[in-house]
Amino acid sequence: MRFLHPEFLFALIMVVIPVIIHLFNFRKYKKVYFSNVALLKRVSQQTTGARQLKRYLLLLCRVLTIVFLVFAFARPYIPSSTPDSVVSQNVVSIYMDNSYSMEALNREGTLLDEAKRKAKEIVGAYALNDRFQLITNDFDGIHKRLMTRNDFTEAVDTIKISSISRSFKQIINRQNLLFKGSGVQSTVTYLLSDFQNNMWDQDSIEKDPASVFRLVQLKANKQANISVDSVWFLSPLHKSGGVEQLIVRLKNNSDTQADQVPLKVLVNEQQKAFASVNIEARGISLDTLSFSGLSGGWEEGRVEIADNPITFDDQYYFSFYVRKEIPLLVINDHQTNVYIEAVYGSEPFFNVNTILEANVDYSRLSEYPLIILSGVEEMTVGLAQQLSQYVRNGGDLVVFPSETNKLTGLQTLTTALGISRPLEVISSRRKVNKIDMKNPLFKGVFKSLPRNISLPFALAYIRYPGNGRNLLELEDQIPFLSQYKVRQGRVYLSAVALNEKSSNLVRHSLFVPIMFQFAFNSLKDQALSYTPGKDLYMEINQTGLDANPILRLNNKDKEIIPDFRKTETGRRMFISDQGMKSGIYKLTNGDSLLAKVAFNDNRSESDLSYLNDTELKKIFKSESFKLFEPGTKSLSSEIKAVNFGVQLWKLCLILSLVSVAAEILLLRYYRQMNIKD
Fold this sequence. Notes:
Elements: E1 2-3, H1 16-23, H2 37-74, E2 76-78, E3 91-96, E4 105-106, E5 109-110, H3 111-124, E6 131-135, H4 149-157, H5 168-179, E7 188-193, E8 212-217, E9 226-233, E10 244-252, E11 258-267, E12 270-279, E13 284-291, E14 297-305, E15 315-322, E16 326-332, H6 338-345, E17 350-356, E18 370-374, H7 381-392, E19 396-400, H8 408-417, E20 424-435, E21 457-463, E22 469-474, E23 478-486, E24 489-494, H9 511-521, E25 537-540, E26 551-554, E27 559-560, E28 563-567, E29 570-574, E30 583-589, E31 592-599, H10 613-620, E32 625-628, H11 635-644, E33 646-647, H12 649-676
Parallel strand pairs: 3-6, 3-7, 7-8, 8-32, 16-17, 16-18, 18-19, 19-24
Antiparallel strand pairs: 1-2, 2-33, 4-5, 9-10, 10-13, 11-12, 11-14, 14-15, 20-21, 20-22, 22-23, 23-24, 25-29, 26-27, 26-30, 28-29, 30-31
């Protein structure tokens, strides 16, 4: 047994006071005369023993009263056998999980409400002069400071459900960051959460060896949950008036099968498709829904299911751009290329502008997602620099050389682009023997690659150093069609001219799909949706942007000025920790609409499966670790038992009162009992 305040033990010296009183009887005796003293002598002999016993019992009661009262002030306790017990704390850090999963119910209400009550019980287990730190998933700046007990209680009452979820690593790194340089030597960290599986990202946790971790696991009632996990289109190209095929991925996060789950697709708040889906327990369902009737421009989409009581993941927002046409620019040297005109002229969706090299309007290059350079022998440095800037800003450039042996113009262009320069023209028949099927250029061209496929051949080709990615390759690993990444854009460099003297490519079955794919892949549309806290940034199309744009994200409820930075690869809008809620926002530059951006909550919260005791102990791997499971026992009492062991001051106070009561009973009833005897 130990004492929290041993200085009070000096008061035990007061036990000499009742001892002195009992050793010296200060009562004055009064003489009484009796006629027969023989009778008094007999009575005195009979009562002397009882009177002495009473005196000793009274002395014992009074001594025990003082001893137990002094012990109560000295706060005795039996030290805990666990190694993480501490006697006192200066700083207590409390993390409260306020993610969507904390909306789940148990017999105490929502898990978040129970977490608030438990947090207040925790601070109630510490002294008034201790300081507390509050951390939530929002990582609010107001929580950086240390709080008093009253300030902490007020801050806890203001916590609301957040769409952001955090891992153990992020939480502990945040705590270490806040305490860095503050002079705090050691802390006790409480984590109040349901501890979903997604909180552990399999990364090791860097813990301060001086910190003590205590986990309070809140358990919800078992319930089923169906979530809209993700959506995507079968084709990335959206044409005005065309048929769209949307694939919806639903996930069953429970152990029971879900039957007849209603699913519908809305575009611009109009229902476009409906389905009913069955999903096996812990299973995934993919359903394809078709719709049409879209006009050109930005479209706002939403997928909905009906699944109560957990509803935060029942909607999935997405946005996409529907095009009426694809503008293409073809730059020729002296005359138009009949093969390019034949390919793109067969499809009205392509709006081809064909001009000569001398008539290029540099200011309008950014209007075209794809520029095709065909047969240009000579090239000015100015045009080469403008094309280089166009590619660096995100444009795609396809280069077909001239059929002559002049390489001057091509050397000027490749130097400006920083890609492989042409070395020489070789007149020799060589066959393409390798095709890069992993490149997006060939996506959807073949259902399966035939074993004995007939590939193009070259009759006269330009030899380049093999510094790019060879999409089509001649024998001896000689590039036939190469791809180069230049900042945000791409350059496709052909080794042969577009005529029958250089190659049979223009007559080959691959020519049309390759030319179509050049155009389709040049459309760098943004993602259908983004997840705040997971997706860090989105690339911004620089077409039409000035040097210092004023970008805003807004919807009917909120307006945000995003963090916009210029990087080596282009311009990025950072979206992490911007406070975006689920929905569709307009991205504007001044009064002009740049895009519509969809945001969805993190679906990791949808899986209502939790870490068990063994897994939590494995994660923390620390002797300074304890797991609390709230039940009928007071959490405050459990914490005090861990901090101070078994406290005995209440028992001492009770025993002191018992001693006083025993003294009163002796004084009142002992004499009567003796007379009866």
